[in-house]
Each structure stands twice: as structure tokens, then as C-alpha cells.
């Protein structure tokens, strides 16, 4: 089971909303390596979408190396084998894009999105 995925009407296609939310869950550590994602048909039914929409999201996640799909095992979160890059700009940009997509699907504007980041940022004084 994965945390709730929400699809909102708007400019971001549903497959991209699914992809961005699952990517954010993986990158945020809420979905760990080996965690099994719901079958395409089940998630499509749960979200009221066509199976092709969910399949495209899963294909894009697989192309990004975030999940693997095997006939008997289904789709699972891929193990991270590489060390994190020393240059943080790439991963930060990727995470920012995923967060932006999620914020847009929720209807947030830039000020709301930045306020959410500030609120979530840990206080260095403890």
C-alpha cells in the first residue's frame, strides 16, 4: 500500500501527477527499496483513471530507475546502488520539479509552496 495519491483537474496530466507523487514518496523516504506498488489495474480503479494512464506513470518511473517491474513480483521501488552525487544541483532540481508538480496539482501558488517548504525546514537550533 502506498500513501494516498491525489489527482486534480488542471494543466498537469494525470500520469504526470502520479509519477511526480510516487517519485516524491520515494525520494522522501516514505517508499523504501523493495516496497511493492499497487497493480496498474488496482491503482487505475482506485483513482478512476484508465489503466494506460497509470501504466505510463509506471513506465516513466521505471525509465528514471526509480522502480522495477517483473511479471511475478509486480512493480517495486528500485534499490539505490549508487552513492549520492557530490553535486547536489541535479538531485535538488529533480526534487524541486517533483514538488512543484505536486504543489500545482494541489492548486498552490508560488508563495504557498515556498511557505510550505519554510515550514517543513528543520530548525537548526533544535
Automatic annotation (TrEMBL):
Keywords in alphabetical order: DNA-binding, Transcription, Transcription regulation
Pfam families associated with the record: GntR
Residues annotated as domain HTH gntR-type: 12-80
Cross-referenced InterPro entries: Tscrpt_reg_HTH_GntR, WH-like_DNA-bd_sf, WH_DNA-bd_sf
SMART domains xref list: HTH_GNTR (SM00345)
Ubl conjugation recorded as keyword: no
SUPFAM superfamilies with a match to the protein in the record: Winged helix' DNA-binding domain
Gene Ontology MF terms in the entry: DNA binding; DNA-binding transcription factor activity
This protein's name: GntR family transcriptional regulator
Organism: Catellatospora coxensis
Amino acid at each position: 500500500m502506498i500513501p494516498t495519491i491525489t489527482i486534480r483537474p488542471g494543466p498537469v496530466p494525470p500520469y504526470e501527477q502520479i509519477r511526480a507523487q510516487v517519485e516524491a514518496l520515494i525520494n522522501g523516504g516514505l517508499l523504501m527499496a523493495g516496497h511493492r506498488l499497487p497493480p496498474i489495474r488496482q491503482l487505475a480503479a482506485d483513482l478512476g483513471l484508465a489503466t494506460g494512464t497509470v501504466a505510463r506513470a509506471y513506465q516513466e518511473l521505471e525509465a528514471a530507475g526509480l522502480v522495477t517491474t517483473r511479471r511475478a513480483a509486480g512493480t517495486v521501488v528500485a534499490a539505490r546502488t549508487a552513492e549520492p552525487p557530490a553535486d547536489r544541483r541535479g538531485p535538488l532540481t529533480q526534487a524541486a520539479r517533483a514538488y512543484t508538480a505536486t504543489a500545482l496539482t494541489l492548486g498552490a501558488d508560488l508563495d504557498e509552496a515556498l511557505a510550505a517548504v519554510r515550514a517543513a525546514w528543520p530548525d537548526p537550533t533544535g
